[in-house]
Amino acid sequence: MSLGPPTSPSASPPALRPGDRVSRSGGSLLSRVTHGVRLAQDGRFEETVDLLTDTRLRLDGHPVSEAAQVVPGLLVNLGLAQILCGRFDRAEDQLREALSLTEERGLPLLGMVAGQNLGCLSLYRGDASAAIAAFHALAPRLPSSRREALHVDLAEALLAEGLVEEAAEVLADGPWADGGSSSASTLLVEAKLWLLRGDHRRAAELARRVRRGFGGGSLWHRLAARLEHRALREARPRPLSPVERAENALAARVPLAVTARGAPTARHGAPVPAGGPAAPRPGGPVEDPHVVRAGLESALAAGDASAAVEWAELARTWAVPRVPGPLAHDPGTAALADRYREALVHDRDADAAARLWESARWRAHHAARAAGEPGDAPFPRQAGDRRRGRPPRTAPAPRPGAPERADRPRPVTGPLLERLGDRAFLRYTRAAGDAVVLVAVAGRVHARVLGPLPRVARALSRFVHPLLVPGRPPGATAREAAALATRALLGPALPLVGDRPLVVASDPFLGDPPWGMLPALRGRPVNLVPTARFWLDRRREPGPVAPRPGRVLLVAAPEPGGAVREVSRLADLYPGARVLAGDRARRGEVLAGIGRADLAHVAGHGRVPDRSPMLASVGLSDGPMLACDLSALPRVPDTVVLSTCWSGRDFAGRTGAPLGFAGVLLAAGARTVVASPVPVGDSGTGEAMRRFHRALAGGVPAPEAVAVHLGRAGFCCFGA
Questions:
Q1: How many Cα atoms sit within 13 Å of 483 on the Cβ side?
Q2: Alpha carbons 597 and 578: distance in angstroms, whole number
Q3: What percent of the chain has pLDDT above 90?
Q4: CA 515/CA 512 separation, integer angstroms
Q5: Cα 714 from chain centre
Q6: Residue 360 binned pLDDT confidence (cut-offs 50, 70, 90)
Q7: N or C: which end of the chain has fewer CB within 10 A?
Q8: Quick one: average pLDDT of 1-6?
Q9: CA 52 – CA 49 distance, rounded (Å)
Q10: CB within 8 A of 542, min separation 6: which ones?
Q11: Helices (H), 125-255
Q12: Predicted pLDDT at 273
């Protein structure tokens, strides 16, 4: 919600020409505009509309209306007030007129404020995608003095979509983050965020602060009172049912102005299941996290673990249409990726370049979505189904025989149990504040509660955190942490699965642990997949031996020193392999080689910037190759091995489809990606990789070869 710059009574009217009469009412009219802005800041929007509408009529033909900012500034504020009063058509007319005047009079800042308010109009009409695109388009252009309102509006649009953690990141990056904000709209959106994250007391505290700061005639007072009531309702000793919690969350997510009018939720809202454990229906889309959570918790409460698997699948895929996937790109993001690459090479502000790229990616994705273009399918291509030529900005609809999109769910439990064979499937999820694992094994599905989410997360953090320091030798404390994490994640499941190979579908609350370093999984084949459906669509039918790769690409970056030694030893195992090492490992040649190979091995320094996993990089001789570079390839190898630090990060730690190197390669059609979510040591890795490739070339399946030779070093097997 962005108010235009108030016009001061001391603003200078246009110069008078000979014969003009000075109007004594000019200062009064400007004072009325300023007073209208102050009324809006106090949340008295009906009064704002009455005052500014009357002032607009009085300004018609008056000399003071020729001052550049007066009429467009009035219209910007009047349009916002109309939005918050629910008069959308009038708001659009006034904001469009303001935008036209700002272009005509050369007022770029005021034009951006008008554009931001038009984004708010889209949000309150139920089109959150158009709003998100508009706000991201403004992000790099608005001056710092205007960014608080933009961050709040963007966070509210993300909350309306159910993207709670993404909204939290936006608020955490706000210009007020260090000193706090007293803005009513900021406090109310923050209160909504805390409510949706489960901190009801903090939400009530913020809402109460707003309510006490404004009188009963203020919209802010009414909104704060409603939000405080919802927060206190959830904080009562009697726990709410899953359906009640979902209804409360859906109501809290509705944008503030819509809440004030008691209007229904945004257009994507879905009905909440009425308490039964039924699985999702194949005919209709379920794209709302709180609806999915209610279905999952209801199924678990009824003891229907098979239905819980169906809901848990949706808990992983509901956000795919709302979050830019690994294949989302366009010429604008490509240019910004080059800017990030340059910043990285020249040690400039790479973080700022990454933020610009990420914002452009969200804008492009949501602009396409608002225009009705198809978005990313979660895993749109199977191995062998390749695009030819330059790909579009977003992934096309799947071809016949390719995996179905997330908005056409098919039952998965039956086919999964039929095709698991001697494997076991673990789906990690969360329900009512607990971590839960669903175990499909030997023709049955079981549900096991692992314990409160914070406790499980702490155990996992104690295990992973020491591994993030390169070269740190494991000690007794590390071994104890690994044993604790094993009990927390696997303890209740191990009696069910025995020593079977595992297919694991993780959840964002777990992040990306190196599964093969857990004591109970050492030497055990583990496939990491985003969903059970993905594994069913990609798994290869069992044969006597895995097929030997035909075209092999081996890449060694100039650094670290072990990369060239590692690749030179692998070349002995693959006669005829194409080798790009040292100065020959240039980005263009490497990408072209990846596009033609059946097996690719890349060794070098890896890096992943915070919050931008698609800018994960491997340093080559002429600069870094980015994960997003791979999204434009018409084909990728069946198997890719990344002998770099961090190359397995952000596979499960994000909302929506997996990102980073592993995510983009699997989405582009690779069957298997071997990568590490933690730092990789230069010494010792080369020999482990040689043993792994010797096994792979001899027909040992990739999951088994990873488990035996690379799991203890942190590497994981992603895919089928």
A1: 7
A2: 9
A3: 69
A4: 8
A5: 25
A6: very high
A7: C
A8: 61
A9: 5
A10: 421
A11: 128-138, 147-160, 164-172, 184-196, 200-213, 219-234, 242-253
A12: 58
Output the CA angle 193-278-275, nearest 5 degrees. Answer: 55
Amino acid at 36: G
User: Span 592-618, mean pLDDT?
Assistant: 95
CB count in 10 Å sphere of residue 128: 29
User: Is the separation of the CB atoms in 676 and 652 below 8 Å?
Assistant: no
Q: Which of 631, 623, 586 is nearest to 607 (CA)?
A: 623
pLDDT digits (tens, 9 = 90+) for 163-180: 999 999 999 887 765 556
Q: What is the DSSP letter of 600?
A: E
Nearest to 2 by CA among 30, 49, 37, 28: 37
Q: Which residues contact 340 (CB under 8 A, 6 or more apart)?
A: 350, 353, 354, 356, 357, 615, 626
Give the helix/strand (H/E) hosting 430: strand 424-431
Average pLDDT estimate for 700-707: 96
513 cis-preceded (ω within 30 degrees of 0): no
Q: How many CB atoms lie within 10 A of CB 366?
A: 27
CA–CA separation, 183 vs 188, rounded Å?
9
CA 539 to chain centroid, in Å, comes to: 27
Q: In the predicted model, what is the mean pLDDT of residues 244-252?
A: 89
Residue type, 561: G
Contact 677, 651 (CB under 8 A): yes
pLDDT tens by residue, 502-554: 999 999 999 999 999 999 999 999 999 999 999 999 887 665 556 677 899 99
Nearest by Cα to 279 from 264, 267, 296: 296
Is 491:528 a contact under the CB 8 Å cutoff? no
Rounded (5°) CA angle 40-41-42 = 85
CA distance 644 to 659: 16
Model confidence at 398, pLDDT cuts 50, 70, 90, reads: very low
Cα–Cα distance measured from residue 67 to residue 674, given in angstroms and rounded to the nearest whole number: 65
Is residue 502 helix, strand or coil?
strand
- pTM over 0.85? The answer is yes
